[in-house]
Predict the structure.
Amino acid sequence: MLRSVLPPRLPALLGLRADGIRLPPLGSEPVRLLALLRLRVMAFALAFGSAALCARTAAAQIVRWNDVLEQDSAWYGGTEALRIADNVLLYQHPNGGWGKNVDMARPLPPAEREQVARESRTVETLIDNGATYTQLRFLARVHAAQPHSRVREAFLRGIDYLLEAEYERGGWPMIYPLQEGYYSHITFNDNAMIGVMRLLRDLAAGEPPFDFVDDERRARARAAIERGLRVILDTQIVVDGEPTAWCAQYHPKTLEPMPARSYELVSLSGMESVGIVEYLMEIPAPGPEVVRAIESAVRWFRRTRIDGIEVRTVPAPSLPGGRDRVVVADPDAPPLWARFYEIGTNRPMFVGRDGVVRDRLADIEHERRMGYAYLGSWARELLEVDYPAWRARMQRSTAGS
């Protein structure tokens, strides 16, 4: 054990054998001094090795924020989970929501904790990029494993925030309290509304880790997801009498498809529509309207798949960052879907910050090519795995009824 923490050549220099320590007879003063020196060096080496081992162990135990929902159940009852939970509470706005794109698992020194506590009172609270509903799922797991009143209260404030943010007819804005602009649209973009609905659906069921939530909040969550489902069904875009897919955002009153940023025009979304269909397929006993929405969307995905190309990131020394993203021909490549399709024609749309629709990724500016996903394999797993499994489940259900 001792030899394992010493530098490789040090045991031999110290006169160590595999079965312990070998020292010369203590018959003279120089020998006694040498023995003392050896023992001191060994003590230093042992302390250094133990400190390094502790440092490596501590580093291995630190979990990144992106991984906080990927841990085994025992981890949520540990000190690291509670440390992160206390960070999450520190970042929570008094209205119950959270900001986005923050590593809330990062250890915070005392001075920075004070700064975070101050800034959390003014942060923009929203559901974009996983914000708020991710924090709530994490807090529920920590509370289930090690109940603490502060964690419970923070969780309930967050749920109240989401229930308050819902529009009267259903659906959620990206940012709440409301701000003028596309932030107030009903937002499917980046699966924001679907993330909220999945959380509220699980909470309404009352099963762990949400079984500590009171009946009133569960009932409100159930009503909210019913209204949200109605919005989903009412916003599926119909072309020539056939339901197709969904736009990424909608007007909260008229439910008309709406644009967002200059490069996010009114369109059919090849990415966000996948999350919507997956949510619909998770409904245990879907009615005819839900089944029709799923089947028609799957047909649309099959019609709009793009074969024979691949998106690659390649060296480009003359461009900022030294890289570029290009489309190349590859007959063996798996299918891709465009992020945006023109309604009515299913033409893939590539739009830069100038808001002009172009036909090729290469025709928009380099900054957008590298900074946004215009093509992806988003519907592949849906068509090859999830939809067949759903069809099989529906058939078993029909046979058993």
